[in-house]
Amino acid sequence: MKLLIVEDDVEYAAALQAELAQRDHDVTIAETGPSALTAIERDAFDAMILDSMLPQLSGVRVVERLRDAGHNLPVLMLSALGRSAEKIGGLTAGADDYCVKPTPAAEIEARLNALLRARGWTAAGDGDMLRAGDIVISPGQHRAWRAEQPLDLTRLEFGLLAELVRHAGSYLTRAMLIERVWGYDFEPGTNIVDAQVRLLRRKLTADGGDDPIATKRGVGYMLRA
Predict the structure, then answer these.
(1) Between 161 and 43, whose confidence is greater?
(2) Taking every annotated instance into account, which residue ranges of this chain make up the domain OmpR/PhoB-type (predicted)?
């Protein structure tokens, strides 16, 4: 998983990052709420581990802004406080789960996997199969199916679908998709993403199924989980 840890306790964040990295996760650290929101806009993460008590912007406010912006990123909130009021506040704001620090990395990983399953996609078997709703992809085999029917996709179409499936339920900006699918570190002055999405939509709906890709003007694209 690609994870974002938002924690102002530098030593605790570094220790948790090291433990999760040993479990084969790609971990980024943000020390404040604003820097976390900036990181989410610039990159795509599978889940966020969020401290409830942060400088500048509290964890609760971070979750509220995230949800108000339309992001469905799974959020596991951490706090040194175990009071019911703290948990209720975080969950009401939009967090998906709540742990009291310190929590073992193994438990955090298990909780995050549960949150990802709840979003509608999981890694199964040999870890190669990813699912979002009725769409299944195998990155290793470079194959994809919808409603158990194979999809005939070009390399770019498959790459685009794979990114949307990995982050189903969250919007990906055009800049994110250009970097991850096309490998550019700049946004070209063409509508290559929009054109590719149109082609992908045609294939996903060729058999009369609903369009699974949502568009948010000024934000980007999301695969509905």
Answers:
(1) 161
(2) 127-225
For residue 143, the surrounding DSSP H or E stretch is strand 143-146
pLDDT surpassing 80 at residue 181: yes
Q: Distance (Å, rounded) from C-alpha 176 to C-alpha 44?
A: 7
DSSP state of 214: E
Integer angstrom CA distances of residue 158 from 115, 142, 162, 199, 204 = 25, 7, 6, 11, 11
In this prediction, residue 68 has a pLDDT band, given cuts at 50, 70 and 90, of confident
pLDDT at 89: 74
Across 35-49, 72-86, 160-174, least confident range: 72-86
Backbone torsions φ then ψ of 183, nearest 5 degrees: 80, 15
d(CA 39, CA 29): 9
Q: Which two tokens stand for residue 144?
A: 């994809």
Dist CA 134 CA 225 (whole Å): 9
Three-state SS for 154?
A: coil
CA distances from 100 to 52, 82, 107 (A): 10, 6, 11
Q: Edge to edge, what strands does the sheet with 47-51 contain?
A: 26-30, 2-6, 47-51, 75-79, 97-100
Strand order in the sheet with 149-150: 123-124, 129-132, 135-138, 143-146, 149-150
Q: Going from the N-terminus, what domains does the chain have, and what CATH number goes with each?
A: 2-118 (3.40.50.2300), 123-223 (1.10.10.10)
Average of per-residue pLDDT values in the chain: 84
